[in-house]
Amino acid sequence: MQLDQSLRRNHIDPQTPWYAQRWPWLLMAGPVAVIVAGSFTTWLAFSRPDALVVDDYYTQGKTINQDLRRDKAANTLNLASTLRYDPASAILSGTLRSFDAPLPGKIRLHLVHSTQPAKDIVAPVEVDAEGKFALALPMLEKARWQVLIENEQRQWRLNGAWAWPQQLQIELKTNLIARS
């Protein structure tokens, strides 16, 4: 009897099913709105490309074409280089060849650290008449290094990735990276 009076006082008919009441629908509206908003956000994330904003996109595009020209120039010269680092003597040694003949002259060697730009190494190197060069370096950190070799005039370049010390040496070739 007392329950009947409290239900009437709150305007709730005990014979009315739950879906005919407004409170369950009002309580479910919040989670449903979250599910709809989450689905829409997921759709946006997967359907739209990530936009990388570059201030001077035209100059950057020209730079990419220059890099491709440098790769093609290296390919024309049939360049190949081998690098090996000896941690006991802290010496990075290598060779540079064009059509299996030594390519003497001055080059720039870039070792780019995979995660920390402060550890990048850029060094001018003199290649002797036999196509060999050596460079004293501090202990190389265990990392995946990006290697770039280019002449002083930046007319050609050889590049590749070197996972040191897992790979004791790396061989860079035009359009092909062979590792040993």
Tell me the number of helical segments per DSSP (H or I, 4 or more residues long). Answer: 3
Segments where pLDDT lies below 50 for 5+ residues?
Answer: 176-180
Strand content: 35-45%
Into which percent range does the helicity of residues fall? 25-40%
Radius of gyration: 33 Å
Write the element-wise H/E pattern from the N-terminal end onward: HHHEEEEEEEEEE
Oligomer: single chain
SS-based class: alpha+beta
Mean pLDDT: 84
Would you report the number of β strands?
10
Biggest sheet overview: 6 strands, antiparallel
Distance separating the two termini: 89 Å
Shape verdict: elongated
Describe the structure.
By secondary structure, this protein is α+β, with helices and mostly antiparallel strands. Helix content is 29%, strand content 36%. It has 3 helices and 10 strands. The protein has helices spanning 2-9, 23-47, 57-76; strands spanning 79-86, 91-98, 101-102, 105-112, 121-127, 132-136, 143-151, 157-164, 169-173, 176-179. Strands 1, 2, 3, 6, 9 and 10 form a 6-stranded antiparallel sheet that branches. A 4-stranded antiparallel sheet has the order 5-4-7-8. Strand 4 and strand 5 form a beta hairpin. It is elongated and about 105 Å long. The relative contact order is 0.13.
